[in-house]
Amino acid sequence: MKALTIEILCKEAKLFSSEESTHSEPSLFGVTDGKAVGTYLEHKFRIYLTKKKYAFAAGNSASGIDFPSLHVDMKVTSTRQPQSSCPFKSARQKIYGLGYSLIIFVYDKMDDERLRTSTLKITDAIFVEKKQTADFQMTKGLRDILANEGNTDDIAAFMSEKNLPVDEIELHALAQEIQKNPPDQGYLTISNALQWRLQYTRVIEKAGAVPGVVAVYRGTFS
């Protein structure tokens, strides 16, 4: 068994995306539930890696991510609405990132009425390093404030205006930390909810053009 690394994960994600884009799957015909499609693709990619004889720890409810030994979570989303949810752990995630990297598969589901089968055309596979998994507007705003000699009051006011889900004490503690430890630029859009709602339009657009957002695979479909 070969140890799975992030480099290998990205290489195999590229090969898997190419293969899956030509695979006809009758069990997905007529399925409109994005969660069911996501579960199918996540399960199939893990089986694919196992068949290639890679050794990796399987994700579980305790770790909360698919590849805990690599600190990488897998996300599957439709190109028509590229978003998904993830557990809310702390408001800090919006500023300093989720705490793990993402491998994102973006698909366009094509149903063949005549053959009653379905194909998942993978339009993009993207690897987002954990430092870049924070919220774009939040980190951009904070970095701009710091670049313009903003102080902790300016930082706290900005986060309050953005409705960061923290109390007053945590808000000011975060403001002090941000001034000492500025966040990296994030590229996700993270909406406040009981679970974070992650939106991927920007990472799809920026993949390969900014540090930490890697275009692993680009589908070419007419």
What does the model show?
The chain is of the alpha+beta class and 222 residues long. The protein folds into two domains: 2-85 and 100-130 and 189-218, PvuII Endonuclease, Chain A (3-Layer(aba) Sandwich), CATH 3.40.210; 137-180, no CATH class. It contains seven helices and ten strands. The chain has helices at 6-20, 34-51, 93-96, 136-147, 152-161, 168-180, 201-206; strands spanning 2-3, 24-25, 54-55, 72-78, 83-87, 101-112, 117-128, 189-191, 195-199, 213-218. The strands form three sheets. Strands 2, 4, 6, 7 and 10 form a five-stranded mixed beta sheet that branches. Strands 5-9-8 form a three-stranded antiparallel beta sheet, with no helix packed on it. Strand 8 (189-191) and strand 9 form a beta hairpin. Helix 4 runs antiparallel to helix 5 and helix 5 (152-161) packs across helix 6 (168-180).
